[in-house]
Automatic annotation (TrEMBL), chains A, B, C, D:
<dbReference type="InterPro" id="IPR038084">
    <property type="entry name" value="PduO/GlcC-like_sf"/>
</dbReference>
<dbReference type="InterPro" id="IPR052517">
    <property type="entry name" value="GlcG_carb_metab_protein"/>
</dbReference>
<dbReference type="Pfam" id="PF03928">
    <property type="entry name" value="HbpS-like"/>
</dbReference>
<protein>
    <recommendedName>
        <fullName>Cobalamin adenosyltransferase</fullName>
    </recommendedName>
</protein>
<dbReference type="InterPro" id="IPR005624">
    <property type="entry name" value="PduO/GlcC-like"/>
</dbReference>
Amino acid sequence: RVIDAVAASDAVRASVAHAASLGIRINVAVVDSGGNLAAFLRMPGAFLHSIDIAIDKAYTAASFGLPTSQWHAALQQHSDAVREGIVRRPRFVGFGGGLPMVENGQRIGGIGVSGGSEEQDEACAQAGLSAIGLKS
Amino acid sequence: RVIDAVAASDAVRASVAHAASLGIRINVAVVDSGGNLAAFLRMPGAFLHSIDIAIDKAYTAASFGLPTSQWHAALQQHSDAVREGIVRRPRFVGFGGGLPMVENGQRIGGIGVSGGSEEQDEACAQAGLSAIGLKS
Amino acid sequence: RVIDAVAASDAVRASVAHAASLGIRINVAVVDSGGNLAAFLRMPGAFLHSIDIAIDKAYTAASFGLPTSQWHAALQQHSDAVREGIVRRPRFVGFGGGLPMVENGQRIGGIGVSGGSEEQDEACAQAGLSAIGLKS
Amino acid sequence: RVIDAVAASDAVRASVAHAASLGIRINVAVVDSGGNLAAFLRMPGAFLHSIDIAIDKAYTAASFGLPTSQWHAALQQHSDAVREGIVRRPRFVGFGGGLPMVENGQRIGGIGVSGGSEEQDEACAQAGLSAIGLKS
């Protein structure tokens, strides 16, 4: 299944609405299971770096099916070489704010938020998922 | 003035709704006056190349303040060197589907659509502008 | 549907076998519907440029659902601006050798071959499709 | 000697078969002694980041003639500057899953696998080598 345009748009709008309620400014992206950009929304004044961070958080979550906030702990069980190497890979983001989109056990994409703290970003991503009936 | 997130989202959704009414599948992007991505929406199955073409049409329209459909005629008044050089610049798109976003005479960004014919793409971009009370 | 690894591998091997029968050396690539590389095979001594040309032919065919050999004629019905602009887009290849992979009317990817003439390349791509029961 | 197309294809297929027996999904790449992609195969659903990681592991192994799993220990004998610098070089991968392809003492390429743990990835790469009569 591919996420449809209205659902993807509803998700990014819900993330932005949640950010507004928190008093922060974010960028938020949804990518499909192939990693292609499906939806994006930017609040004026959100950090410039956060445009790509949001997109790459979504990409990382879609790629591995893991919330990006869990990578730091997950990497503790790997060798030093992996721990130091993975974080340098292009488009990898290993901190919070990206959540996989899973439907009936199948990875259908990812959503990524950047602009606040890791916890705020993940809460905004979660609000995006909730708005379209998905759980993280 | 900077286009706000809800307006940018309304615009890309209106473009997608217009594309659906035409029976085509598009990607649509809005960039702000700084050229940064403000909103994006992809209809599943739209051409893959059109992701970046939509973004670059929006960028080109925001950059020069000219509908991208007018570039071909405009270039006839330039030297061969400009005519052949401009079209090779990264992120320049010289065919229809990108419209500047102008408010009270001030360029505030651009919207770009890719997925149909030039005329269809521009009509979708126009639908996006109209939805938020802007004229092209 | 996503093309499975064995089918993708069978396809590129059949293309290479056909190339060998023609006495040419090719590179051949399969990408999935999201444009991600699914399979690749290179005959030693095939042109170096052809590595990326093969991959981008597959990408272009998957993107638009059109044999890349049909683009030149198709572009005659577009404006000069589109005709000159599309061919300059990153990863666009507008000459023969790329075929879409379609199953039950649904685009599931593309196959691209580079190394011989356009006709030879397309014949090799066709051999790849035939080997896995797809028609172009 | 250059690895021929059938051998390269046999190698990536054997890696995929081994991955299937382990219940994991991988991407696997073979590059020749010139660092050019010779064969690639992706199992649907394998991590997106792993496409390039597999290719770069193969490249790194072909480049230095060392299993990528041995780099971390090898770097301990270098200066801090080298240790910190090498891992930042484009296309360098310093963790397990890449093996050089050596025949009669001559480096003829590399194979790289990404998608499982370092040990699983290296076992899959090893299965690829074994299938074509090479030792790591």
